[in-house]
TrEMBL record:
Residues 7-105 form the Radical SAM core domain. This is Radical SAM core domain-containing protein. PROSITE patterns: MOAA_NIFB_PQQE (PS01305). The lineage of its organism: unclassified sequences, metagenomes, ecological metagenomes. GO terms for molecular function: 4 iron, 4 sulfur cluster binding; catalytic activity; metal ion binding. It comes from marine sediment metagenome. Its cofactor is [4Fe-4S] cluster. The keyword Nucleotide-binding does not apply. Gene3D superfamilies: Aldolase class I. InterPro entries: Aldolase_TIM (IPR013785), MoaA_NifB_PqqE_Fe-S-bd_CS (IPR000385), rSAM (IPR007197), rSAM_sf (IPR058240).
């Protein structure tokens, strides 16, 4: 049996997505150093870091990744993000801290903006998974995946209120 943990780092977000599992739900605790230390000491095999938007708390995010890696260097840590604020500095910092991969939910069709984000992550050799929210983007995402040597597979992320399992897809960019 796998030893996994899902950490909600923050309930703050820079978007208001209709499909969000956190929509209209607020967490009433602060993600403290004591919470981070306790989670790190549990030596989970895999940790999913989500929110809200975890990149809105970059310093706390990096500290948490470093703390977990200190206690358990083999832990796999994945960031769930909308990627809106992601830049090269953040991608490099997260990779250096020990981030294993990025699960990214783009909100628009692929374009040069997203290509830039993908390049930041790719240069840092962080594996990427893209969650497609809108069936109207299928053709664009398929072409984007083909152009960037990515694989597409169906992916279930949980029971969000407005999304059916058949509407969830994952693209893996196998860059490492």
């Amino acid at each position: 049996m796998r030893n996994n943990c899902r950490v909600v780092l923050t309930d703050r977000c820079n978007l208001d997505c209709s499909f969000c599992c956190m929509k209209d739900k607020r967490i009433y605790y602060s993600f403290t150093n004591q919470t981070a230390l306790w989670i790190a000491q549990q030596r989970y095999d895999e940790i999913a870091i989500t929110g809200g938007e975890p990149l809105m708390e970059l310093e706390k995010l990096v500290q948490f990744i470093c703390l977990v890696k200190y206690f358990n260097p083999d832990a796999k840590m994945y960031l769930y993000t909308n990627g809106m604020s992601l830049n090269y500095y953040e991608a490099f910092t997260l990779k250096t801290a020990g981030l294993t991969g990025v699960n990214w939910s783009p909100k628009e069709k692929p374009n040069s903006y997203y290509q830039e984000k993908m390049t930041f992550i790719h240069v840092c050799l962080i594996p990427i998974r893209i969650l497609i929210q809108d069936r109207l983007m299928d053709d664009d995402i398929l072409q984007f995946a083909l152009n960037n040597n990515m694989q597409i597979r169906q992916w279930t992320i949980g029971d969000c209120d407005d999304m059916k399992p058949e509407d969830r897809f994952r693209i893996d960019w196998s860059n490492v």
